Amino acid sequence: MTGTVVALSGGVGGAKLALGLARVLPEGTLSIIANTGDDFRHLGLAISPDIDTLVYTLSGLVDPAHGWGRRDESWNFMTALAQLGEETWFRLGDTDLAMHVARTRRLAAGEPLSQVTDRCCRQLRIATRILPMTDDSVQTRVRTDAGWLDFQDYFVREHCAPAVRELAFRGADAAQALPDAIAALADPGLRAVIICPSNPYLSIAPILAIPPLRTALSQCKAPVVAISPIIGGRAVKGPTAKMMAELGLTPSAREVALHYANLIDVFVVDEVDAGMTEIPGVRMQSAPTLMTTLEDREQLARIALSAADEFSLHQSKFRLP
Amino acid sequence: MTGTVVALSGGVGGAKLALGLARVLPEGTLSIIANTGDDFRHLGLAISPDIDTLVYTLSGLVDPAHGWGRRDESWNFMTALAQLGEETWFRLGDTDLAMHVARTRRLAAGEPLSQVTDRCCRQLRIATRILPMTDDSVQTRVRTDAGWLDFQDYFVREHCAPAVRELAFRGADAAQALPDAIAALADPGLRAVIICPSNPYLSIAPILAIPPLRTALSQCKAPVVAISPIIGGRAVKGPTAKMMAELGLTPSAREVALHYANLIDVFVVDEVDAGMTEIPGVRMQSAPTLMTTLEDREQLARIALSAADEFSLHQSKFRLP
Question: 20 to 30 Å CA-CA from B214: which of A189, B88, B135, B231?
Fold first, then answer.
């Protein structure tokens, strides 16, 4: 099948599938709507962790060991910063720093984040469009037993240790969805929307918290396929399972499916979760979802796209006389 | 002799003598009033070239090959910046960058430059006080045949190639002199003021362009000793001699002495200029002024201080009954 594809993604886990999609789809047909709820200012620099992870992953610059940051990174800036007695809890590599310095300068000069990101993608020859969910500020905040924390304070400084009781996306209600993101979801040639296996509560929820984006997704004509970030009750990476338990949810693929139920058509779970109880209105599909190699990513991308195509075909059959 | 000493300094040449002074004087007795006319914003970062050169020189971090920047520097940030298609004409090393990022953040948070500098000195265990001439913005500008240029555009981007016709220090008239600098010059225990062999027109002139600083210097009770940056008609480093010719001045030690004549008591020239015609009201002293080794710097520092002490003694003799 042909057509355009939109992916919703956070950082590392999502970027892996985004890379798979970018590699199996015809060049220029993929747009990724990226979470910017984790964006923050540190040392005066504008940092967009999920956009950077997508940029580095899609350009091949990513550090393969971590899935974020740049490969062959050096840390001389951090060493000098420590020597000056400055804050060092958030580590910025020497080459990674170029992204933040350039972004900070351009934002200060009035360029919107989407334009800064687009320029960067063209410069690094990334054919996939990376679309920040909004050019406005949305801040993911985490209520813990010790009170509200900014996301990076929770995630990096506190190493996700505090128990999470509630999440909020400050500014999301009033944020203008990126027009290109809305347009991508309304594209008559849209083949599928893929919700990447990012943290549903931390990384995908901020995107869906922007009312026009949520509306555009619910009204979109193409099948919406989500991939479970939970495999056999555990998260592949990050605090998803721990956080689900803290929020009073069962850390399971089924719980994630229920979370997405009224937005998605197909839910892809790992083979170990193949026996899970069906959810009305959601097609279940099982597949190997752990992405270790590049081939894993491409394979999962093909499976997600096929699932969307089959769903479309199925729908058409029922619609035909 | 005991007492405090104030040095006026720009970048590399001045910092060499400043280091010599810091090493031969009792700890904590030296204050350096630093030129900030070269300060500028680049990539959104607040850069203070002369302060940084002084900080790096006095802390032992300086790159001995250049006399500015940090030793064992790496340039991975610049490589990544070029990859992103950003401006690279002003090169910022990975470790040097820590200074600019920290300064930019602190200035944005409302800390004055003097406090930022002082904190940095304490952190790097520099016992000498480095005092920015002002916490206000003063910008050295250069009129060339192609029009007015900001200093760094002239100095770094254009490699000092355009002929200089005029210099201006934007903001100097209205700038508040740093109170600590005024106080240092008014200190009753002041032993000497040393005008370092920096470029008189580019590096020392901005300091003297701030009216209260110029007044404080002319009214100061201690002898004022300047060291010629011109040796045998040539500048040791930088565009001093070329610029003097372009400004219609003879590139000579004597011309510099005339420039300083009504502000100084003693002028130290190199031995090759020992025969120069006397200038009324200025004691001439010749000495080896080329500072190659650390010993050269200490020796010149001792000579400058002795010249000041001798002048004081001479004055006292005449004053005594």
Answer: B231
